[in-house]
Amino acid sequence: MRTWFWTLVLLTAAVLLAVVLRENTGHVLILVNDWRVQVSLALAVVSLLALFVMVYWLIRVSAWLTAIPLRVRGWKTRRQVRRDQELLEQGWTELLEGRYSHAEKDLTKLFGRSKDASRQVLAALSAGRAAHALGEFGRRDHMIALAKEKASDDQSLKEAIATAAADLYLDQGMASQALEELLPLQESGARHIHTLRLLLRAYKQLGRHEQVYMLARTLSRRGALHDSEARQMIEAAAAAHLREKTYSGDWKAFWKNLKSEERTLTEVALAGSAAFEANGLLDDASKALEQSIPLTFDPRLLAAYSRAEPSQVKRRLEHAEAWVQKRPDDPDLLAAIGHLCLVGQIWGQAENYLSRSLSKRVDARVHTLLGSLYDKLNRPKDAAAQWRMATAVSAALPVLASDSFLPVADTADDPGVLHAEGLAYLSESGFPTNWDRHAEADVLAQDRRSMKSDSSAKPSMAGAPDEATILKPGRDPLDDYFDSAPVVGLGEPAPVTTLAPLPEKKS
Asked: Which of 71, 209, 270, 349 has CB atoms 3.0–4.6 Å from 341's, for a disulfide?
């Protein structure tokens, strides 16, 4: 459009000039010393235009000839930039494809060949990332050091190096080194989203929950974290910080700094309630749970609410009974009320609510609470039954088709038990029948005499009865080692070869 416009302007000017020269037939007189030249006006105008064109093109040609060295240098620079870009693209393509060894080789080559500081820094950082992926952390650190050297005083390059290095360190689990790179950026006022994300990762790895909480709030406010992710981070960090500071005194200020919606998060409410209880503020502990329970009715909150001090039972029962009007079939809420009644020694209501909870869902904890209730009411059979059911539920015991009991084993003819000092029989209580201090002294004395008399022979077992006392006439020796009581419901055992009689004792 611009070309057409100027073409139209020149044509218009030429037409106007031709009309003017045709109507004016004047002459132009040129006097130079004794020289006198007279030409027509049209010839003078045409001559001036031709002279202008010649001078213009002469200047253009001269400028073109003098700019040849500059153009050559520019061409070389462009060719170098094009080659650098091609090599950089190739290296990054290999890096993204996972061919890290080739990527590191090409990017290191680019670092040594390029003359531009920015491209050298970019190549060094990319080569460091490839070396990191290969597990060559020494080469990675070397490339990061070269990048810092080439960055000089360029602040933007320094920030790029710091964030890239911190990302690699965090990936390796070196949170302290990452913080060393990121803290100068934070102190200089850098508030980039990526920098804040890296700081959040570093503080999470180091377990610095207060900083995690603050950064999670900041990133959530700026829309850099999804609401659910931010909620989980804030809940975990705030609860952990409250547990850490429960006995140090600063937890109150932290609790006051929390937003109202943050205090109602499950983990935060549990940690806050525990902190209040640990410091003797029972009313505040109850309040912390009462603000959170109606929002979720989380079983963990209800279980914590049911573990009340006797002075808090009345207050908590009032709130729980108000909640149960809206949720009459909630087994966790019914169990919590039953637990509170048990603590408050309201036995009838405790049994009622715990039984209602069991009718909705089988729970080992509720069976245990009922067992404790029956034990306090002096109903041992019912208590034992509830505790057995609690064990069966918690341990996932198999359900038998019918219960059967083994008969009492006959232990009258059981063999003796070999102890460190000899062979002794067991009584019904499970302890040796002939085990006393005098027998022990006799055993030790006899052992010493036996060892002195015959050092090559094995030491005899003092106090050991003869084989005749162990093996009765007409008795299978196998019965002396295994229980012979029959098992009801089992078939006849397979025939077992009778053991050979014991060798006679050498005199």
From this structure: 349
Asked if residue 195 is part of any domain, the answer here is no
- Using CA atoms, how far apart are residues 305 and 30, in angstroms rounded to an integer? 116
The answer to the question of residue 155 being in a domain is no
**Contact assessment for residue 160 and residue 121, using Cβ atoms and an 8 Å cutoff:** yes
> Phi and psi dihedrals of 46, rounded to 5?
-65, -40
Residue 374 Cα to chain centre, angstroms: 44
Of the candidates 365, 373, 372, which has an alpha carbon nearest to the alpha carbon of residue 390? 365
Domain end call among 253, 275, 296: 296
Residues 26, 31, 35, 36, Cα dihedral to 10°: 20
Beta-strand pair 27-32/35-40: antiparallel
Q: Say if residue 318 is in the same domain as residue 386.
A: yes
pLDDT for position 317: 92
Q: Which amino acid is at 321?
A: E
Give the domain range for residue 475. Answer: 425-450+461-479
Same domain, 312 and 285: no
* pLDDT confidence of residue 190: 63
pLDDT of amino acid 316: 92
* pLDDT at site 402: 56
The pLDDT of residue 299: 92
Structure tokens, 432: 């040796």
Is 66 inside a domain boundary?
A: no
- pTM of the predicted structure, to 2 decimals: 0.64
Helices 282-296 and 313-326, axial angle in degrees (round to 10): 10
Residues 323 and 349 in one domain: yes
Final residue of a structural domain among 296, 327, 358 = 296
Contact 320, 337 (CB under 8 A): yes
Residue 442's pLDDT is 59
The DSSP letter of residue 477 is G
How many Cβ atoms are within 10 Å of 143's Cβ, its own excluded? 26
On whether residue 455 sits in a domain, the answer given is no
Q: Name the residue with tokens 């000839």.
A: 65
pLDDT score, position 461: 40
How far is residue 52's CA from residue 58's CA, in Å, rounded to a whole number? Answer: 10
E strands, 303-452, are: 417-419, 422-424
Q: What is the total count of domains within the chain? A: 3
Report mean pLDDT in 10-residue bins for the chain, 507 residues: 84 78 72 79 80 91 90 88 90 92 92 88 93 92 92 85 92 91 79 87 92 91 88 93 85 89 92 91 92 92 91 91 91 93 90 91 91 91 90 71 61 56 48 49 56 47 43 48 44 42 46
Note the Cα 95 to chain centre separation in Å.
27
Please say whether the beta carbons of 251 and 225 come within 8 A.
no
